[in-house]
Amino acid sequence: MLSYYSKLSSEVYDLDKYIGSTFGDIAFYRDRLATCKGRILEPGVGTGRTLIPLLEAGFTVEGFDVSDEMLRICRRHCAERGLETNVFSGKMESFSLPAKYEAIIIPTGTFLLLHEREDSIKALKNFHHHLSPGGKLIVDIFLQPDVTLNQASTKTWRTENGDIITLEKKVIEVDYIKQYTVSHHRYEKWRDGQLIQTELEHFPLRWYGVEEFRNILETTGFHSIIISADYEQGLYPTNAHQSITFEAVAK
């Protein structure tokens, strides 16, 4: 099996989406959680890019991830800032906790990593189970327009000690019936012109139609659904390149 958010890809994520970086989502989530006085859960917490600003704003947030490397980085960032919380290993479709939460949040399309429809339905049911009555689910999705197969793109980052990390990405598969793509991400770390580390990541990603996802949420037991585009509350999407956020209430 190819690696998935292993050491190099997690390091790049932390360089590219560092703590404090935002797409407009941090302020949006903070505003939408303003009335939340109880516990908040972030599945797919990653390196803590969203979790840490919310903790610093006074919210009670914990999270989980499938990647031990991401969790290691998240714990380090929390420790550096003197923040205490619980972050742990878990999967969206199968985590089981005794607690109920006032809100569950999944920013930046992380939910789409569940590319199999059955797993995504299981995850939504699991979220509903872990929410208190009247609790909020807030989740971002995005579409995948203009998919081109086997066309590579490359990005480069420099680490603090001067190493160079390159990333070559290309979509190798698209299933228009089951609504997902699969990309290969090739990471390489270079030092003084020598390749010292490499990693190949298998990266599946699902997409949903806007009204399709609304219907799935309703079928799963959510109501009072608000759809927003590009983190503008209640602004219905008008083009395929916008970020789309769903806010739904558990029965």
Automatic annotation (TrEMBL):
Pfam families given in the database record: Methyltransf_25
Sequence ranges assigned to domain Methyltransferase in this UniProt record: 40-135
InterPro entries tied to this protein: Methyltransf_25 (IPR041698), SAM-dependent_MTases_sf (IPR029063)
Keywords attached to this entry: Methyltransferase, Transferase
One term of GO molecular function: methyltransferase activity
Keyword Metal-binding: no
GO biological process: methylation
Record organism: Cytobacillus kochii
Name used for this protein in its record: SAM-dependent methyltransferase
